[in-house]
Write the structure tokens for this entry.
Amino acid sequence: MTTDFVLANTRLSAVPLTPEVHLRLAEEAIELWERTESDHGAQLAPPFWAFAWAGGQALARYVLDHPAVLAGRGVLDLAAGSGLVAIAAMKAGAARVTAVEIDPLAVAAIGVNAEANGVAVTALLADVLEQEPGEDVVLAGDVFYSREMTRRMLGYLRRAAAAGATVLVGDPGRAYLPKEHLTLLAEYDVPVPATLEDTPVKRTTVWAVNP
């Protein structure tokens, strides 16, 4: 079972920038990736769900520090990974949160992590980027890591903003960050695992997406 795999290969840890949130995290990315493929007998995406990425940490910190942004509102967390941002949104007072992922292991991790933090998050296995947005708030951490993902993600996020949603993204300086469509809200120095990034601390920004 995917849940069993998550539990067997991670340990519950406080997130550096958001110690209010505890996640099941792995210590070594490549080793876990190899184990994931071995156990499932197929080539799989990297285990993004097993780490607290800088973009997600910054966005989660912003949400926790600015609860009025989403208090009582419906929230969609895109490319949710571990569920960090979704969990922070519930802790900050969101009425409901749906965390969307295309990786079944991520969906399992979101469920495990939400339970560990005593919050209810709906984890959805789906690609929603061609659909019409529907929630009041849309959150996305560290999603501008490739040209194609940026194209698809930005299209969805701008449609959501044009429909009246509050749309926030966290980014640690990825190459495809579309600054021309964003308004800077906050900056953080985020501790990150040395195996994931080129530095132990990433200067990370939170932005509002313009319609």
Remarks:
- The longest helix spans residues 147-162.
- Helices lie at 2-8, 29-40, 54-65, 84-91, 104-116, 147-162.
- The radius of gyration is 16 Å.
